[in-house]
Design a protein that fits this description.
Layout (H helix, E strand, L loop, with lengths): L2 E10 H8 L4 H5 L2 H8 L4 H18 L10 E5 L5 E5 L8 E8 L3 E9 L1
Antiparallel strand pairs: 1-5, 2-3, 4-5
């Protein structure tokens, strides 16, 4: 497979925490599954922020524009490794690799798109 896109993003956790306070804000960006996963964690906003960073990194790495963040879902495999599913026909046949990391203040993600 050849690499056709690379994206990275960094987000301040407190920015996402402020955003999350607005009514309906999380539901515009995240799936119900993502919100539930993050709310079940000790550091809710760090987990939300790293998923936001992943969506942004994937958006930057894709070879086309116009994918809604809501259509990019970040989950975890059984071994804890993050993975992305994208509900967009243009993504068929693409392999998307992501890595996530967060601290108390920042969350970062990198995405590689292969074809």
């Amino acid at each position: 497979m050849k690499i056709i896109g690379l994206g990275t993003d960094i987000v301040e956790v407190k920015r996402i925490a402020r955003f999350a306070q607005k009514p309906g804000a999380l539901e515009r960006i995240f799936s119900a599954q993502e919100i539930s996963y993050c709310r079940a964690r000790k550091n809710v906003y760090q987990h939300l922020a790293v998923r936001f960073a992943a969506k942004e990194a994937i958006y930057k790495a894709l070879p086309f524009a116009g994918v809604a963040f809501k259509n990019i879902q970040i989950t975890n495999l059984e071994n804890g490794r993050p993975c992305a599913q994208i509900a967009d026909e243009r993504c068929k046949g693409l392999c998307i690799l992501i890595t996530l990391s967060h601290t108390e203040e920042y969350a970062t993600a990198t995405a590689v798109v292969q074809q």
